[in-house]
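Input/output pair, single chain:
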Amino acid sequence: MYDEQQLIELVREKALQFGDFTLASGKKAKFYLDCRKVTLDGQGANLIAHGILDRIENDLPDAVGGMAIGADPITAAVVTIGWQRQLKFNGFIVRKQPKAHGTTQMVEGPVEPGQRVILVEDVTTTGSSSIQAAKYCREFGLTVDRVISIVDRCQGAAEAFAEQGIRLESLLNIADLGVPAES
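Output:
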């Protein structure tokens, strides 16, 4: 069962750090969210999965996934809890680079061209990682219309996704954690 307040407390306790950081987007920041400390925690994975499933349950995609490695534990939790709720959809992984052997595909898992998928992400700042994942998914033949993030830093991701025809939803935003958004 999803409990937003519990997720807020868990993210604050385990993932939120203050200092001087350079984010994946290249931006400088006074705080960092290491959400792997929440997505790889049993309670955190459970809360996140239920939160995402509550958002998608009435409009199920064919699959849920995202860019390796950050989206992998989220995908696994959502697929597992979804199965427990008797919801039918699959998971998939988007590689950062093709492997040199086998199929050399960028998108891995039980998905097929023509299917509709939702991308999951741990933290969104500018959206560049999920925009790249959406590009690979679309090249594979998948339809991507939504990204669900655990935490939106509120630094332009929603606008960047909108330009790609993708809607951003998040379980939390930075204000929920009591941290002012950085510009």
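The mean pLDDT is 94. The chain has six helices and eight strands.
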